Amino acid sequence: MKKKLPELKTDEEAEAFVEQADLTEYDLSCFKRVRFEFLPKSAKVNLRIPEPLLAAVKEQAKREGMSYQKYIRHVLELSLLPRSHPQARG
Q: What is the pLDDT of residue 89?
């Protein structure tokens, strides 16, 4: 059985833990991928879509743990990445 991760309260504690620990000994199954958005959102898009499509987008966004606007942006970005890019594989 793998070890449970300790509760780390500061960035400094987390950095020290990662420097010293063998992470293969810990259960990391609860982790999920996160994406950081660095570019400012400087343009707006107004798009009319059928209500059932919007409902499906909102439901999928909820499953992915993000707002539906962020989910739409994410899907657009993925559709434009080269297939060999690691992000394109999800």
A: 47
